[in-house]
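Whether sequence alone determines local backbone shape is best considered at the level of individual chains. Part of our work consisted of pairing the sequence of a single chain with a tokenised description of its backbone. This step matters because it turns folding into a mapping between discrete strings. For completeness, the protein is quoted in full, as a sequence line and a line of structure tokens:

_____
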Amino acid sequence: MSDGGLLLNFDLTDQPIKRQVKYTGGRWRDRVSAQRIAKRNGDGQSTGSNATPLPTTQRDRHSALPDDIAHDRPAKRQRIQGDSRSEVSSRSLSYMTGKLPPGSISSGPRSATQSNKPGGVTSRLFTSNPTPKTVFEDPVEDVEPAVPSNAPLSDEAETFHALGLSRRIAQHLSTKLEMKAPTSIQKNTIPLLIKEDSDAFLQAQTGSGKTLAYLLPIVQRIMAMSQREDGSSIGVQIHRDSGLFAIILAPTRELCKQIATVLEKVLRSAPWIVSTTVIGGESKKSEKARLRKGVNILVATPGRLADHLDNTKVLDVGTVRWLVLDEGDRLMEMGFEDELKSIVSKIRKEELKDSNKDDVKFDKLPQRRVTVLCSATMKRNVQKLGEISLQDAVHITGAKSDNDGEDGAEVDEAVFAAPAQLKQTYLVVPGKLRLVTLIALLKSSFARRGSVMKAIIFISCADSVDFHFELFRNGASRPASSEKTSLTDSTVAEAAYITSPANPTVNLLKLHGSLPQPVRTATLNSFRTLNDPCVLITTDIASRGLDVPAVDLVIEYDPAFSVDDHTHRIGRTARAGRPGKAVLFIQPGCEEGYLDLLNSTASSVAPQSYESTLQKGFFTPITLPKPDKETEAPTLVSEKQTPNSRAEALQLHIEQRLLATEKESSNSKLLDSARQAFRSHIRAYATHVRDERKYFDITQLHLGHTAKSYGLREAPGGIGGGPSRRTFRPGHNKGGDQKGADRDDNDKKRRIDDDDIPAVDDAAAVRMRMKMKEVMNVASEFNIG
């Protein structure tokens, strides 16, 4: 004490000093288990005073814990690929030090992209995947290509003039439209509808020309009133105000516009005959003006036509001779039964006029009202529609033409066969690998120049369409707004990830029923007219009746809600004798039983493993989207330049890209879009038809693996609550109405309105709408007609 120092008296016991260990990193269950082990063993010491932060690891949702840690609670799932006892014991020592090393919880060997650096993220794609039941065989190349079953007839004697059409129309078809010969359904239908006045039910393969099969007889018989018996012209007697002679109903606006386009091309041979459309989403005032001027052929959606019949006095149906119901099964599925009953009854109630106000006789037109029902499939709802609309109907197919039944009843449900030249394959892909397999398939499809020009990807819901479009587009930000903005600025962009040196530019488009009608029309026109390779990401809104030339590939990324919808989806390719390819994504497990239904509707459906698709698609480097400030897009680089390592690196890149958008204040929130797309996808998955729901069992769907296919590292919550549980920013009113404010002000009495219906498109949304109508009698936003 002489030096004035401070003397501290420590009372040391005989027990060794135990340092307090702080466990960081990993999951909280692992940290708690490690603390219990250290407390029980009494030797939980650390080499340093401060615990080192642990690298973040990406683990599967159902990955198993080591045996010495997981004994406190029962395991959720049996281990698929486990570690040896020596590895488990070595991990136990690591837990005692307070450090949870990377990969200590995840099962299976270390992946190529796993990093030991702090902050590294492990993306495991090829572990803990279910084993498929399908036995894959080596693909056998066809020695001879299949003969097209929906191509025009090759017999030189079969011409349009020989079917009863005038030389004027036949010459116009051959010279202007480059149609030399009719198809089989046209050969069987045109003479019957020209000579007889009986109802008809048309059933033929997709892309076989059903539209012209009923349009040409109508135009021919209207033109006949301006010709003599020998075919010479007697002067134009029919004008636009001579009367309405034909009404054509279609379920969607896009199909109505397509029918109107085909009809307009045919009517160029008879410009005095006028046609127009009345569809939802257009100006009702302009439609009334066109009807007031006069129209001879009207193409309409059921909802808008029923509205005009009730409120437009100038619409006179007393002269109507033909009522055509195109895509009859779709009309019934979309809930138009009441509108169709009203339309048929109002037309039949009007007295049939023999002449018009100008005293022009209608002796060359049918002397009764003729109803033509068209459908590629024969379903019970189609038979019900036939009972409503048909009388003494003739059943016409592409192979024969005879009376198969009257009144559309007692007709066996026909099994639809896809075109013979259509090659169908299905990929058995685990949930985690769906996204990278889709990119690999598209990349391999556009690897050669000219091999695929146009491709369509069908997805179950509109939210998922929006997410995949934003993910695949080249450039993270939206185009800058300008005074003159195109309608397709938000629906057409350049694609990333799927380009190749042979096709450096691939256009990307999106289409679904939640888009405004002008945007939908402009997007579909762009898809038809683009000369560069392009990919359309869409819902079932584009699955019915749309005829887009040069569609070489159809990808069903999400299986259709019914086999009939699958039939119409794949019918967008292999049309009019052209070759085509259709690929269906199936997950291992109960979904593989769905293939038994497909084998009954197709001549041959070849199974294929996702491994071969990854090998083809990721054989070359992957081009990433262009950053905002750089002119050239970077290339994805992995530690090992192999297809599997590129797939894991790509998955890791997508996950990091989604997390990066969470920190940015840009308008595009890719992470929020991915979460909402996942929720809508799960809801849509539960809306398959009852007979097929056993193959798409929502209880068997692995939510964690499905979330990974959306670039998410864990499955987001709020799946069962619906969009009513979404949180909106203050001052942000969805849709520009008062619905969002009503939900905030009256949270306890939450009402179900149009915005509470999930963003699922077409058939799935209609089924959900009908169920909600039965319970709460509410309207829906999905009546796109």
User: Anything to note?
Assistant: The longest strand covers residues 422-428. The chain has 22 helices and 16 strands.
